[in-house]
Write a structure and sequence with these properties.
With 337 residues, the chain is an alpha+beta fold. The protein is 36% helix and 33% strand. It has 8 helices and 18 strands.
């Protein structure tokens, strides 16, 4: 990266490399500090090279010699020659002045103005984001994360619509708050947890991997909070405004962030929901009895049609894509019967 930054400063990078560097600089304050250090090193090297090519004493000696030789010459010629040599002397003297000014300019700490940042993932895609405090967030399909380019004050606040896995940088002085739809939120200091809070869903799900999370939710107009222990999964029913805590299979709940789909005695409806998020589709169960079955299996970077073949072989269920011009939906619909 240091080599790429040097070429970027020298203007020798391609358009793709420019985009790579600029995205890297946006990821954290540490990256921006490294860029400033590379700029200083590059500038110092250039100034040293310029200084080594200019012999100041020789330039001044030649100037005196020329001036002595021109004392008896014509006025216009004398003034023109002196002017040219004074320009050379001025250039020699300007180098350290320019160096000092640029050093002060490059080493000053810029005043950073917080800006709101937004990261969106397309259906069937995931993305990893590093926040200003070095917290790492992995976004699932069709999710939106909004945050400030600088965390100021006593809290670090982000807004999530969708699903994300958070590895929060520990900071005892600044709480980390994730605001989710329907007036819910999660408050942490340093931990790893998963939140599933899509805008159109009837539930908000939170699974704690390690650390401590306080889940806040509205209940009859009153704000309440439930604290999760590691290995617990919380389900908040939006319509009923009720909470259910249960022991979680952490590997199952968070496998999506590693590109895997891990089912362990997982109810069919929940398994299809995971497939829907991963591949940007929507499943419709034609029979209520289908919800009674469950599946176990691991799929790594496989196409959806191949996964559905495994489901069919294991259960006898059939799947078909619905192509109805009268249905106006963004997602492809798959019927299960």
């Amino acid at each position: 990266m240091e080599e790429l930054l040097l070429r970027y400063i020298e203007g020798k990078t391609s358009v793709e490399e420019d985009a790579t560097v600029e995205k890297w600089m946006q990821e954290s304050e540490d990256n921006r500090k490294l860029m400033r250090n590379v700029q200083r090193i590059s500038f110092a090297a250039e100034m040293a090279q310029v200084a080594s090519e200019v012999d100041e004493e020789e330039e001044l000696r030649l100037l005196h010699s020329k001036m002595d030789g021109l004392k008896m010459s014509g006025g216009k010629r004398r003034h023109a020659a002196i002017g040219r040599w004074m320009q050379r002397v001025a250039a020699v003297m300007f180098i350290p002045l320019l160096g000092g000014w640029l050093y002060l300019y490059l080493t000053r700490e810029p005043k950073m103005v917080p800006q709101m940042m937004e990261v969106k993932t397309s259906p069937g895609m995931t993305a990893k984001v590093t926040l200003p405090d070095s917290t790492v967030v992995v976004l699932n399909s069709s999710s939106v994360l909004t945050y400030s380019s600088l965390f100021t004050g006593e809290t670090r606040e982000v807004k999530l619509s969708g699903e994300a896995f958070f590895s929060v940088k520990k900071d005892e002085k600044k709480r980390f708050v994730v605001h989710t739809p329907h007036g819910t939120s999660a408050v942490v200091y340093g931990t790893k947890f998963n939140i599933d809070a899509y805008e159109g869903s009837q539930e908000v799900l939170t699974t704690l991997v390690e650390g401590k999370v306080g889940f806040s939710f509205p209940n009859s107009g009153i704000k309440k909070e439930v604290v999760l222990a590691p290995g617990q999964k919380l389900t908040y029913d939006i319509g009923q405004e009720s909470i259910k805590l249960a022991k979680a299979n952490v590997d199952v709940e968070t496998s999506w962030k590693d590109g895997r789909l891990y089912f362990y005695n997982t109810p069919l409806e929940q398994a299809l929901r995971s497939l829907g998020k991963r591949y940007g589709v929507e499943f419709i169960l034609r029979k209520e009895s289908l919800k009674k079955n469950s599946f176990t299996g691991v799929f790594v970077n496989q196409r959806l049609d191949r996964i559905l073949e495994h489901f069919s072989l294991a259960s006898g269920y059939r799947f078909r894509y619905i192509k109805d011009k009268n249905i106006d939906r963004e997602k492809q619909i798959i019927e299960v019967y």
